[in-house]
Amino acid sequence: MTQKKIARGLLTALAIVVSLLFLLPVLWLLASTFRTSNETFADSSPLSWAVLWPQHWTLVNIKSAIDNGFLLNLSNSLIVAAVTIVVGLAISAMSAFALAVIPFKGRAATFSIVVLSFLVPFEAIAIPLSQSFSQWGLTNTMLALILPGLGNGLAVFTLRQFFLGVPTSLAEAAELDGAGWWRIFWSVYLPLSRPAMIGASLILFLFQWQAYLWPILVVSNQTLDLAPVAIAKSFGAFTTNYGQVFAETAVLAIIPAIVLLALQRFFVASVATTGSKE
């Protein structure tokens, strides 16, 4: 028993050390947000506690980011992500339900196409897709930023796998009571799929939140720039306000970190749940 406790303690200590090593760059980024660029690079060598703890705290970097219009870029990212989650989740849930529950000819082939859709890197189709958007007159619009994120094959796959675990007896009982497919989907499957829906929402959110290549291809109007693009444009040809870049990057990283930490148990449940719900 004592050996097991010692082994568990050593593993716990090792896990803490590894976690801290992963956290060091994040802590350095957060610390650099609240000090000047000169202090950031001056304190980086030799290594000391000053790397992770500013000697002179300042909000000048945050003020510089606000003055540079970063709040507008951040709001653009939030709007795009929010609309994508609401509309994309509805599309993904209905598609997953059809592929998991409704029998129709060619269902297996359709599901294979869905799987292939998220196996192909988006970068491989981004340029020809942007040309199509240009021909349709959709460039420099919020719609152009939102549309590619609505049909997410990974979100459909995640929800379908969850729906397959729901007992078919529930759908059969509802069908005997006269319920149609829409009623079965709305009243039987959706109430049971809260973890999977939250997991799919996270997938849709992260896809749009970290988008960089696509916004560059379809948007040239700076008022529509998303946060990652705005950060990239903060780098000048000759001079760069690194403090401002650190502040913007920290904000961009903190928001998904908070969301993931708050909802991680639902995301894990959506991936791990494959058994019967009976």
How does this structure look, described?
With 278 residues, the chain is mainly alpha-helical. It has helices at residues 2-33, 37-42, 60-67, 70-100, 107-119, 122-135, 142-150, 153-164, 168-176, 181-192, 194-209, 213-218, 227-233, 242-272. Helix 4 packs parallel to helix 7, helix 4 (70-100) packs across helix 8 and helix 4 (70-100) packs antiparallel against helix 13. The longest helix is centred in the first third of the chain and has 32 residues, at 2-33. The chain is flat.
Key descriptive features of the protein:
278 residues, mainly alpha, MetI-like fold, 2 domains, 14 helices, 74% helix, 0% strand, disordered C terminus
Secondary structure blueprint with pairings:
Blueprint: H1 2-33, H2 37-42, H3 60-67, H4 70-100, H5 107-119, H6 122-135, H7 142-150, H8 153-164, H9 168-176, H10 181-192, H11 194-209, H12 213-218, H13 227-233, H14 242-272
Helix pairs in contact: 1-14, 3-14, 4-7, 4-8, 4-11, 4-13, 5-8, 8-11, 9-10, 11-14
Subcellular location: Cell membrane
Organism: Frondihabitans australicus
Pfam families: BPD_transp_1
The gyration radius over C-alpha positions equals: 24 Å
Order of helices and strands: HHHHHHHHHHHHHH
Number of helices: 14
What is the SS-derived class?
Answer: mainly alpha
The level-1 CATH class of the largest domain = Mainly Alpha
How many distinct folded domains? 2
Under CATH, the topology of the largest domain can be stated as MetI-like fold
Q: What would you give as the CATH superfamily of the largest domain?
A: MetI-like
* Strand portion: under 5%
Instruction: Specify the helix fraction band.
Output: over 70%
